[in-house]
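Students often ask what a holo structure prediction actually looks like on paper. The answer is less mysterious than it sounds. You provide the chain, you provide the ligand, and the output is a string of discrete structure tokens encoding the 3D arrangement of the protein together with glutamine.
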Amino acid sequence: MSDRVIRLAHLFPELLNLYADQGNIAVLKHRAMMREIDLQVTPVKLGTKLMLESYDFLLLGGGSDREQAIVGKELAPYRAELQQAIEENMPILAICGGYQLLGQYYELTSGERIPGMHLVDMVTKPGKGRLIGNIAIEWMEQNGVSKEQSIVGFENHGGRTYHDYQPLGKVLSGHGNNGQDHLEGLQYKALLGTYIHGPLLPKNPHVADALLLHALTYRGLYDELNPLDDQLEWEAHESVLTDLRVTSMA
Ligand code: GLN
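The corresponding structure tokens follow.
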């Protein structure tokens, strides 16, 4: 048994689970295990109290509009606690529907607004048609550290998201946050919001390790992560870039 433990809460897997977001957890678990870190995953289901102090890392996946509305209501009482955890650098990976829920609201084509948690100043509005397809972005620098690497995956969302935070990256091919400003996702402290499914982490091992490092740091266990043999992962990554005719940056 490892004495290095990271406790991940997978929020509402029975609702937010579109496009194999579970695959992200499998990748995190494996990459942690290879570094003798025990990643303990707790599915937090609807109606269960979210004991935020029991976790070092949160994951919110994608969901349908209906499911998002349920989750938004369920999480509303935790807003202040979640805000504090974000300020204290708790890592949170929020994908698509989960990403939209971080903001003020997600407006549907009907004009109805699904309230978000307002953890960041961000709104999601309707647009014509859905933004679907493979996507590649250039991971933009954060805190002066340039990643100079691409992130690849698949997106499928109706909502168009607007904010003034540091995006996760610049769109090399695909739609991103809103199909207009060529930006994708959001990074604030250790919070990472993105439209990239795929699932995201199997083809982007550098993103998985960045999240593990955030979780180790949050738990006070920061350590270098020894490199793994990621040949297959990078081949999968490169094949998306090739399909999209994007020159490799990885
Ligand atoms: N329901 C949201 C939208 O269509 C998010 C969908 C998703 O998570 N893939 O914009």
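The longest strand covers residues 131-139.
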